[in-house]
Amino acid sequence: MLTLIAGLILFFGIHSLSIINEPQRDRWCAKLGENAFKGIFSLLSLAGLVLIVMGYGAARMEPTLLYTPPTGLRHLSMLLLVPVFPLLVATYLPGRIKAAVKHPMLVAVKLWALAHLLANGMLHDVLLFGSFLAWAVVDRISMKRRTQRAVTKATASNKNDIIAVVVGLALYVVTVLWAHQWLIGVAPVG
Questions:
Q1: Which of 94, 104, 98, 96 lies closest to 155, judged by CA?
Q2: On the chain, which terminus has fewer CB atoms closer than 10 Å, C or N?
Q3: Which residues does the UniProt record annotate as the domain NnrU (predicted)?
Q4: Closest to 164 in 3D by CA, of 100, 69, 88
């Protein structure tokens, strides 16, 4: 469990630089150069993610039950996950979806985390998904006071919305029918 916690601290620590002290983040970026800063950011994020994966895998071997979700919540969970991939794709394709949602990545993370909390009641699940949900809520609140950095230079287009929905739903189907079992070892349906 300590490996999972260390990974969460490292991953969210680096992802919270702008939340905690955006001017300091900007100074480091200016001092190191944008590419070097992004490289260090990526390496630390990857290290945190590796620790999260290792820690979560180890914690699954010795689970601690906190609550048993009703079976019906699994259906609600699956429904909440439908827009997650389209929102993730829409993050990088400006269009009406991105304009309406404003921060589609954060909405996707919140839906993903909430859906998993509804379907899983083990301590390691609550730590993992609860951390992602709490971070996404705090980050969204902090976005209201921060200057937004451009995520992509793609031109806004209605076609982007169609691409986001089609590609996103295809990813959802692939994940539900195959990838989740392959990557996580748990089949969401069946």
A1: 94
A2: C
A3: 4-188
A4: 88
Using alpha carbons only, give the angle 114, 170, 90 rounded to the nearest 5 degrees. 65
Q: Which positions ≥6 away from 175 have C-beta within 8 Å?
A: 85, 188
Tokens of 150: 């451009």
How confident is the model over 117-159, as pLDDT tens digits?
999 999 999 999 999 999 999 999 998 888 777 655 667 788 9
Token pair recorded at residue 99: 């304009």
pLDDT, tens digit, 9 for 90 and up, residues 70-120:
988 999 999 999 999 999 999 999 899 999 999 999 999 999 999 999 999
pTM: 0.91
The torsion of the CA quartet 43, 153, 171, 95, rounded to 10 degrees, works out to: 140
